[in-house]
Amino acid sequence: MNFFLEPLTLLTFFPLLGVLALLFLKPEWRSAHRWTALVTSLITFGLSLWVLDQFNAASGDLQLISRRPWISVAGWDIQYYLAVDGLSILLVLLTTFLMPLSILSTWTAVEERVKDFMIFFLLLEVGMTGVFLAQDLFLFYIFWEFTLIPMYFLIGIWGGARRIYAAVKFFLYTMAGSVLMLLAILWLGVYQGTFSLPGLIDRGGIPGDIQMWLFLAFAAAFAIKVPMWPLHSWLPDAHVEAPTSGSVILAGVLLKMGAYGFLRFNLPLFPEASVRAAPWVAALAVVGILYGAIVSFAQKDVKKLVAYSSVSHLGFVMLGLFALNPQGIQGGILQMVNHGISTGALFLLVGMIYERRHTRDLEAFGGLWKVMPLYGTLTLIVALSSMGLPGLNGFVGEFTILLGAFGSQAIGSYWFAGLAAVGVILAAVYMLTMFQKMFLGPVDKDENKKLLDLNWREILILVPLLVFIFWIGLYPKPFFDLMAPAVEKLLVGF
Amino acid sequence: MLFSEAMSTGFFNLAPLVVLFPGIGLLFNMVFGGRLPEKVVGWVASLAVGAAFVISILLAVSLSAIHGHAEIVSVTEWMSIGSLHLDWAFRVDTLSVAMMLMVSGVGTLIHIYAIGYMHEDVRFKGDPTRFQRFFVFMNLFIAMMMILVSGDNYLMLFVGWEGVGLCSFLLIGFWYDLDILGRPSLENAKAANKAFIANRIGDFGFLIASFLIFTYLGSLQFDLVFAEVEHVAQPVILTITLFMLLGVVGKSAQIPLFVWLPDAMAGPTPVSALIHAATMVTAGVYLVARSAPLYGTVPAAQEIVALIGAVTALFAATIAVAQYDIKRVLAYSTISQLGFMVAAVGMGAYAAGMFHLVMHAFFKALLFLSAGSVILGIERGYHAMSHGKKGHGFHHTDDEVFNPNDMRNMGGLKDRMPVTFWVYLAGTLALAGIPPFAGFWSKDEILLDASLHYPVVYWLLTAAAFMTAFYMGRQVWLVFFGKSRHEAAEKAEESPRIITAPLVILAGLSVLGGVLNLPHFHTLGHWLEYTLGELRISEFSWLMAGQATLIALFAIFLAWLLYGRREQAANEPDALKKLLGPAFVVFEHMYWIDEGYAAVFINRYKDLARFLAEVIDGRFWHDWLHDSVLAAGFGKLARFLADPVDLGLIDGIANGLADLTQWVASRLRRFQNGFVRSYALSVLLGVVLILGYLLFR
Amino acid sequence: MVPIEYYLILSVVLFAMGAAGVLARRNALIIFMSIELMLNAANLAFVTFARQYGQLDGQVFVFFVIAAAAAEVAVGLALIVMIFRSKHSIDVDQMSSLRE
Amino acid sequence: MAVDFELIMFFILAGVGIGTAAGMLLSRSAVYSALFLVLNFGAVAGFYLFLNAPFIAMAQITVYAGAIMVLFLFVIMLLGAEKLTPPEVLPWQRPLAVVLAGILILEAAYLLFLRTPGLGEIQMPGFGPDTSPAAIGAILFGKYLLPFEITSVLLLTAMVGAIVLVRPRKQGGGQE
């Protein structure tokens, strides 16, 4: 019976209790559903803090292990194996941190089928937490695929006009990548005799050519999820059609699963292939950084703009991870968190204006700072954080990534980091253009003249994000300290 | 004695306060400012900066007590990854303290001035709620500038570097819903964006330079970096310094990134004085001085820096002679003077460059603030004039847009605004380099050094100095002498005490500032030597000084010939225009640089973005590759598998799959009669068959 | 001395009769009883094997099956009552709304 | 060759079991069917005793023959007599069912008697483990604790479900 009380198991599956409670509530009791989901996600967040409390930051090993033999037919060694280390702890915290905020953001935005919405949302949390904690490839795959289903419905039921198209596209793209990953997982499990990740890493010894193929198979799944250029085509559609909270989670957590996959599986399992692939990944990442930044500049839909900016930001993350040195990888991990916070906040902000104006067309706004001073100021701070202003979180991540990539032997050329740094300029261009079109200038549209500024609930959603924007920007040491030993351990193989 | 003990040890620990005080001020005003009267908000902000000034003095005192030895005050670790170690650490040495004193001293005066100025400005522009916001931004700026000058590593410097850029953005766009004439427009906001993005381009250079520094010199902390310089190959240092130069030209508005500074005049006048004349734009000069050990090793880089500075100085001066907007003249003058400073530090004359930096802060802040006073006076006059006719506020008259900045609308203000006139004159003489005003000493030192080491630079700078004296003369005559060319100028009124008091102090500094670094004494030079090592100090030459003075006087005389001897009528073309013809038009339109940039870079970037977004990402990637090839291809496959004959209308994967499912369903339908029992029968049939298969296979 | 095969074939016969009952009868109640019969047949096989292998686990399983059957009967009968209320019949052939 | 008392008892009980099962299937009235089933359960309980499973036998009597069948009868009474007026709409259903059941039996017989070597015989009172209620209790609350608890949840759920299902509806309110 201790099984369910093991910290990580409890953390992962706790939202199911909320789902269970929701099942017993009448569909028309909407606020009861909202409160149940909120309280559940808050308790889950509390649990994750409890996990953080037990986490020993000085060690780079897997900790708080929760492990049981699970399926052992036909000589397969599949385990139920959850554990956390410095690579994943921040992402777990990010997940549980963003959940209550997203749920709060649906308070007035989702009015239909609230019960179903909340159930899907909590299920999604189970899947995401599981992805970050699973240390068995098979278990990981199950969680990985499991996240698809709630997200599919979240987009498909509560989305915008072209939601079905977007949901199907999202589903099929991710599915297509996952299939290859499944094959690679099965190959590893069958030929290496275990599905457990630490076991596989210890065993090692996969020949170079096969490493490359396996690397590519895993990369297919992860690169689509990240998404790396040129596999990003599903992202703008999914973001534009998804409800606000869905976008927040999609950008904040789901995309991180891709980058995390590279970090957790590709790098330690296939070190030789990773080194060989590093310049190519870096090249795609740099193209993504510039491409995303330039394309966002031309967008007229705010949400689409933010979606393309994600392509750019995740390019930075990938560049950092494949720098294969401490600065790059730690910066990459931190940048995942930063992107979750900043872009999450941006989507929340876009959602707030959308609730008021029911449009996201940049041209429909103008001079909003005058009408909604608080909203304007907060958007400015978040936008600055997103474009990497020093003193805010985005800068710390981008700087360390670029510093790492610049001196990286794996990438092998200054040009990548140098070109990526151009992305910093372009980020300022599109973010400021967005800010200018929405908030500056005179209020020349009648619809905008009487907009209400943020209410207390919305402020409550944004304040925690702002706290982290400043905290990480000014004093990122605690965050780096959490991951440093694990990254060091990871890099021993290179 | 306790005090002397504290002087040598205790005061250094106060260094973080130079950032903290303005920070407290801004937080206080942010939280409570909305509920407090304007006076309180303004004085709290001013006091916060004043407190930073006091701290800076204490630091300077302590520093001289230990003979200028650099102190590092570390607050906390910032980040530490692998070999990268960065602290939030304050560096107190003679260079940084000189900057701190200048920033907080001039800053305090400008804050006090702004209490009076903004009080009127927000009323003229019709939104008094922004008073509070102004002082929040100003305090933020001071805090950022302090971080910039006091940081102990390149990254902390960069935090301040971009931070002041942000404040500049916020303050240029302070009237984000108006244009420079107060009409509803996006113009000011565009100017703000332009400044930020031009600065970002410079910051890109800074970033690359810091990556190179870290990669080759192994650290970002100043002392460690400078200690490594000798061990690194020259080409690397050259690359570093050139990328750093990109940062310098961005921040200090040199060719080719100077275009943002003239537009930055959209900000309220105290902003122009503080940020775009005295402090922020000099950050580039400070950076070169700070990186002296890097530049010192590569003469090629020094030469490039010096040349860029000198060319900018002349180039901007030519534009300044043909401007009508009182603040725009000063803006180009600032670019030009920054060129002087950059040239000086580029030549290695750090003492001269820093001397001119401080002097320029005094007299240019003075000139901007006085210009602000002039503008306010004109606005008051216009207000009084239009009050009788209709409504109030100058932007309500639609038939003719009145520009209170336009020198063609001024004239004869000498008598209407005497205090402003006298302080403006002091600033002008200082800028023109007439002895014994402050600008004379500093400019002379730069010219002297150039004449000895870089003749080309010397000639460029001398030409620029000539132009400087000319356009300042032109300005004084156009604004203060002659007859008023507009009714508003006739009715102009002198500004209140709170505005003129800081002006008088600054005027005093502009007159007497030269004592800081008089020939033979070189107080500032020796003070900086503690930090920068043995400096090259050229001895005073009567010949050079006399030559420079004569040139300046001649230029002023020329200005009098054109503008003073005979009065300009209201609608008459500029006197110089008659003389120069087409060349004047070129200057007037600033060589069409803005239009050129727009045509060559900005519009091309927009085209590229649109092309990528619509054609590549939209039509090719999204519509063609995904929808037509992938989705439709899959749809066709599904259709083919489903029923090659039945070519229904299938669109995309969703429909393809749906059709497939429907087809299968229709085949299976005949087995479906809806009776539970017959379903159950098929189950049993299945059981029997499977069991049979297992038995008899 | 009863051969184990006898018990097992008896179990199969009872099971097959139950299955036939489920398929042949239209009265929902009788179908239900037939299902109970099938469960019983399975239980008999369980206990027989438990006896043969000398282990208690088989009996425990029967215990669980009985519990499950009790639950199933409770819900099933409730369903039948409900259907009877709306259709006024317990003929399963009348309950063919699944077809549409 | 001595008459094997046990074998005789087995055949008698088996006859009762099969007979009552057939009676249940063939009787027109649901009440009779239910009563036949009670008898059948009794016969099976007898087998359990032969098979050294007294606890299960008792459970069989109390739960099945007692509780469940009473419930059945109760429902039958509640719903009134069964009247099946419409003719059979599935003409092939009944014969097919019987045939398939027959084939199933034949397959099983083939498997048991022809394909499997002798499984051994069972004697009463046989050897084997302690099958007292105490022993069953020990295993239930030890090795099978989790399933046991889940069973209790299952029963609870069934109870709640049954109540919810037959609860009288208010007009207009309630479920979607």
Summarize the entry for a quick read.
With 494 residues, chain A is mostly helical. Chain A has 19 helices and 2 strands.
Element layout with pairings:
The complex is a heterotetramer of chains A (494), B (697), C (100) and D (176).
Chain A: H1 7-23, H2 30-54, E1 63-71, E2 78-84, H3 89-105, H4 114-133, H5 137-158, H6 163-192, H7 197-203, H8 208-225, H9 234-241, H10 244-269, H11 271-297, H12 302-321, H13 326-357, H14 368-371, H15 373-386, H16 393-406, H17 414-439, H18 456-474, H19 477-491
Antiparallel strand pairs in A: 1-2
Helix pairs in contact in A: 1-2, 1-4, 2-3, 2-4, 3-4, 3-10, 3-13, 3-18, 4-5, 5-6, 5-10, 6-8, 6-9, 8-10, 8-11, 9-12, 10-12, 10-13, 11-12, 11-17, 12-13, 12-16, 12-17, 13-15, 13-16, 13-18, 13-19, 15-17, 16-17, 16-18
Chain C: E1 2-3, H1 4-24, H2 28-53, H3 57-87
Chain D: H1 5-26, H2 30-50, H3 54-79, H4 93-115, E1 121-122, H5 133-140, H6 145-166
Written overview of the protein:
The complex is a heterotetramer of chains A (494), B (697), C (100) and D (176). Chain A has 494 residues and is mainly alpha-helical. Chain A has helices spanning 7-23, 30-54, 89-105, 114-133, 137-158, 163-192, 197-203, 208-225, 234-241, 244-269, 271-297, 302-321, 326-357, 368-371, 373-386, 393-406, 414-439, 456-474, 477-491; strands at 63-71, 78-84. A two-stranded antiparallel ribbon of chain A has the order 1-2. The two termini of chain A are 41 Å apart. The model of chain A has no long low-confidence stretch (mean pLDDT 89). Chain B contains 29 helices and two strands. A two-stranded antiparallel ribbon of chain B has the order 1-2. Chain B is globular, with a radius of gyration of 33 Å. The N and C termini of chain B lie far apart (109 Å). Chain D is mainly α. Among the domains of chain D are: 1-84, Four Helix Bundle (Hemerythrin (Met), subunit A); 130-166. Chain D is 69% helix and 1% strand. Chain D has helices spanning 5-26, 30-50, 54-79, 93-115, 133-140, 145-166; one strand at 121-122. Chain D is globular. Chain D starts with a helix and ends in a 10-residue tail after the last helix. Chains in contact: A-B, B-C, B-D, C-D. Chains C and D meet through strand 1, helix 1, helix 2 and helix 3 of C and helix 1, helix 2, helix 3, helix 4 and strand 1 of D. Strand 1 of chain C pairs antiparallel with strand 1 of chain D.
